[in-house]
Please model this.
Amino acid sequence: MSQAETPPRTPGSEGPLAGVRVVELAGIGPGPFAAMLLADLGADVVRVDRPGGPGLGIDPAHDVTNRNKRSVVVDLKAADGPARVLDLAERADVLIEGYRPGVAERLGVGPGDCHARNPRLVYGRMTGWGQQGPLAPRAGHDIGYIALTGALGMTGDPGRPPAAPANLLGDYAGGSLYLVVGILAALHHARESGTGQVVDAAIVDGTAHLSTMIHGMLAAGSWQDRRGANLLDGGCPFYGTYETSDGRYMAVGALEPRFYAEFTRLLGIPDLAPARDDMARWPELRAAVAARFRTRTRDEWTAVFADSDACTAPVLSLREAPHHPHLAARSTFTDHDGITQPAPAPRFSATPTAVRTGPALPGADTAAVVRDWGLTPGWAAPPPASLPDPALHNPQ
Model:
């Protein structure tokens, strides 16, 4: 089946958002991932790519964040570019953009322009700093956003620089997931009231929100505002990672007394179990745990803790994870067009989801979108060549 063809739709077979139309103005990072989540849930996501592609990205054929989508190419700087996007917005339920504040308005596709054509539209805005505030117009990336919120300062060992958690914590957890939650809530409101609205999803806001429990513990005096000194940040000897004899690692999360007891028994240090409740003995306990783990390989320890409630697991690499027996049994990962990738999540009993199509190639679906969205045939005219606009290349 070609990229331009759309498989026939069976009600209930493509996820709970089947029938919802989404326009994604192409960017990088959290915006495309949020649109992928909606596409995984069954929404008809049309990605509006720009001529020449994004300023930062991978081969479109391998960019699985564009799976389950369709693509058209529109030059927003061309005379007819904004009108073409507004034609899509008029027929859509949701629009997602990740430009710096004010860029969409200058291009003629901001919330006011879109709502004039479609008052029910949910207009999702994905940025790092938000639409207002001193840093709103500034460039940025995940690591800077999580640095200012205090989240980065909680990661890593004391006495060493904070450890960067890839871009999972800011871009995707604090950004994409909050944008999707906001879009779904606003979509519900639009269907109840007939009125759309703007969702301002800032990574700094979402990441700060993720630390709500920690702030409560800080206020209660049960969390120290420094790295590696708390129950959940590696300060506790029975909640952390340990190196094995082959240079790999095991992860330990034996917090509750009964799980801790099983952990110390299987590790072979039951005599040190009482050290759990005596913080003065934690250095002794940590040294003993580390020494024991260094006596066997990761796989040997994995076998020891298999089928136990010791809350101990091997630290797997990205290539190893899909082959773990539990993840394999659940089909947590899937293969599509030769690319191993996480399967859609979460799961639904009545409206199952799936990876229906591979990454949408720029412009490959124009004819199908024109047909399915009821656009005029002239809408599919190829855009003129244009130089990229640097203002569009920072999606946050």
